[in-house]
Amino acid sequence: MSGWTKEPWFIGGPVQDDGTFLAISAASRDPVLVDIAEVRIGFVGKIEDEQQANAFRIIAAVNACAGIPTGNLEAGGVLETIIKERDELLAALNKIADECYTPLPSRETLADIYKIAAVAIAKAEDGQK
């Protein structure tokens, strides 16, 4: 169990006809809207641009982080980890491309290519756990 409402989230529209609340919503398993949060306005009688922008930012952040455990997000370094893993995979692909550049790679070269790919795949799969 994730402990939070499954993504994607979206703006569900004003909760009250007078426009004093804006709902952050998601579709539940039986396509009924589930209100996750409400953005309440101050004394001006309508949802302000900043509050609406905040609601959209919350939704964008939640949807961008789909599949990442909350503990990992709280620990920080998620973006740095993603960039590092991307760079490692790109380096492995570059090695594979360099090895495959010859018209007919030898059996040993193909074995080396396989090892490079297998190591990169194993590291990526381990990062998903």
Characterise the protein shown here:
The two termini are 15 Å apart. α3 (78-99) packs antiparallel against α4 (107-127). This protein has helices at 49-64, 70-75, 78-99, 107-127, and strands spanning 9-14, 21-27, 33-40. It is an alpha+beta fold and 129 residues long. It contains 4 helices and 3 strands, in the order βββαααα. The protein folds into 2 domains: 9-67, no CATH class; 73-127. It has a 3-stranded antiparallel beta sheet with strand order 1-2-3, covered by helices on one side. The longest helix is centred in the last third of the chain and has 22 residues, at 78-99. A hairpin with a 6-residue loop joins β1 (9-14) and β2.
Secondary structure layout plus pairing:
Blueprint: E1 9-14, E2 21-27, E3 33-40, H1 49-64, H2 70-75, H3 78-99, H4 107-127
Antiparallel strand pairs: 1-2, 2-3
The count of β-strands is 3
The assigned structural class equals alpha+beta
Rounded to the nearest angstrom, the radius of gyration is 23 Å
Q: What is the count of structural domains? A: 2
What level of helicity do the residues show? Answer: 40-55%
Poorly predicted ranges:
none
Global morphology: elongated
Beta-strand portion reads 15-25%
Question: Count of helical segments?
Answer: 4
Give the rounded overall mean pLDDT: 75
Q: What letter string, H or E per element, gives the SSE order?
A: EEEHHHH
Strand arrangement, largest sheet? 1-2-3
- Distance linking N and C termini: 15 Å
Main sheet summary: 3 strands, antiparallel
